[in-house]
Amino acid sequence: AVRRAKVSDWLYRKRWFGLFVVLPTLAAAIYYAFIASPVFVSQSSFVIKSPGQRPSPSLSLANLVQATGLSSGQEQTKEILQYMRSRNALLDLDRQIDIETRYAERGADFLSRYPEPFDDRSFENLYDYYGSMVGATLNTESGMAQLEVKAFTPKDAFEINSRLLDLGEVLVNRLNQRAESRAIAEARARVTQAEERLRNARVALGAFRNQQEIIDPKGQAAGVLEVSNELEAQHAGLKAQVELMQRVAPLNPALPSLRNQANALGRQIAAQTGRAVGTPTGIASKLAAFEKLNVEQEFATQVLTAANTALEQARAEAQKQQYYLERVVEPNLPDQATLPKGLKSVLIVFAAALCLYFIGWMLVVGILEHSPED
Question: Distance of CA 253 to CAs 242, 246, 249, Å?
Fold first, then answer.
């Protein structure tokens, strides 16, 4: 009876310790030993690389992977990781594999499954739960991203991890297309403008030729001058023959005929010269306008050639700046649960409860010491 009284007295004196330390620790031990559901973890890693850059010399695994000439883009990797942690990724994932079912109907315990205690089935609560089950981090030294997915079955963990990597690759391709569109759009607009300018120049030149009834003023002027030169030679020969005949045989009956031929050639020469120069409708008066239109056409052709070259260069540069998601470690299919770590969790609960107990005990002692005596 005395021993029983001592035990009762000791238990009474330690009642607060048992209530605030022993009881939470015992509850945690029972939960992790008999209730907590096993959690399977699938891990993968990847880097974002570009063929347009060379990797910096380093012995890290990410740079060894990039030895083919591709380089990591940490900014792009951060964008992909931010997407994987975002609501958009959750929506895309839920459309493919019904993420809510994977975490709500797999036989998990009431504290681990979705929705958590005191939560309802809403998208925001699902997003908060998704953030606790999916981790995406970046190793700034190696440039490698780590993706870790927790689930209550090995298949779910593996499939969610794989689908997230697929969605990341889709996003990388979409970002590449957007960047390529921006880079090429301006070059393509310049090509369109150059084509329009060349088209207008050709139309204007064609209209000028139809209106003036002339194809090539320079060529036609050369032809006229060539004919005129031949007529000049013939005319000079006839004039010499007429002058000679007038001195030698002024009464020759052929003399009038030669004079008529010389006069006819003179009129032909004047007509040919008038076609080329000296009149408002002459070829020379049309040559300046034709040359202006022709130069505009040639210049527009050169501009179009330069614009097409710039477009091809823009496409080549855009291709060099393409990024790729390279899987360094493929998602694994876990063969055993690695979470929860029961012993560690129980020790954490015990340590936290013990700290709170001593803090409370010190507060109570301090209050009692400073309280006024009755």
Answer: 12, 11, 9
User: For residue 62, is pLDDT > 50?
Assistant: no
Asked if residue 134 lies in contact with residue 84, where contact means CB atoms within 8 angstroms, the answer is yes
Q: Could you say which DSSP state residue 271 is in?
A: H
Task: Tell me the two tokens of residue 220.
Answer: 């036609």
Interior CA angle at 222 toward 230 and 237, to 5°? 10
Distance CA 304, CA 335 (A): 63
Residue 67's pLDDT is: 42
Determine the Cα–Cα distance for residues 112 and 152; give it in Å rounded to an integer: 9
Q: Percentage of the chain surpassing pLDDT 70?
A: 81
Per-residue confidence (pLDDT) for residue 75, from 0 to 100: 83
Q: How far is CA 107 from the centre of its chain?
A: 42
Which of 95 and 50 is assigned the larger pLDDT?
95
**pLDDT tens-digit map of 6-48:** 767 767 777 888 888 889 999 989 988 889 999 999 999 999 8
Copy the structure tokens of residue 35: 């209730």
> Rounded to whole angstroms, how far apart are CA atoms 81 and 164?
10
Residue 20: half-sphere exposure toward Cβ, Cα within 13 Å: 14
pLDDT at 274 over 70: no
Output the pLDDT for position 69.
42
- The answer to whether the CB of 171 falls within 8 A of the CB of 80 is yes
CB 109 within 8 A of CB 118: no
Distance CA(84)–CA(331), nearest Å, equals: 15
Rounded-to-integer distance, Cα 116 and Cα 4, Å: 44
CA 51 to chain centre: 14
Q: How far apart are the C-alpha atoms of 310 and 48, rounded to whole Å?
A: 28
> DSSP letters of 201-237?
HHHHHHHHHHHHT-S-HHHHHHHHHHHHHHHHHHHHH
Assess contact for 310 and 44: CB atoms under 8 A.
no
The interaxial angle of helices 87-97 and 123-133, nearest 10 deg, is 90
| Cβ contact 350:22 at 8 Å | no
Amino acid at 30: I
pLDDT > 90? residue 269: no
- Bridge pairing between strands 144-151 and 324-329: unpaired
223 pLDDT above the threshold of 70: no
